[in-house]
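Subject line: Sequence and fold of a protein, written as structure tokens
Body of memo: The sequence and its backbone structure tokens, given next.
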Amino acid sequence: QVQLVESGGGLVQAGGSLRLSCAASGRTFSTRAMGWFRQAPGKEREFVATINWSGLTRYYEDSVKGRFTISRDNAKATVYLQMNSLKPEDTAVYYCAGRDELGISSTPNSYDYWGQGTQVTVSS
């Protein structure tokens, strides 16, 4: 069983930055693609970014391209989401997710493991 624990959320002013971390348990982290999703109040969970097992392939939702960067450290079994130039519309609970596949995906249903989420609030 894989457990994912997010950290790094908080309150930040518009234009600021945050770095989210997601620590994974288990020995097979390096063979799993990972992703970040978010859910704002009253809205469905939406895709933010995904990274393949090696870290060489990444894909972003259009509204975060150029502002967010997903990365991973397989030795530390951790995936990161660096968020710059934050906007109030980025406010949401951010979830880390892992899948039993090497390749990326933007579809929530294709992920097998989920963290508990971390709140990100961007004030205007």
Remarks:
- The chain has a mean pLDDT of 96.
- The chain is about 0% helix and 50% strand.
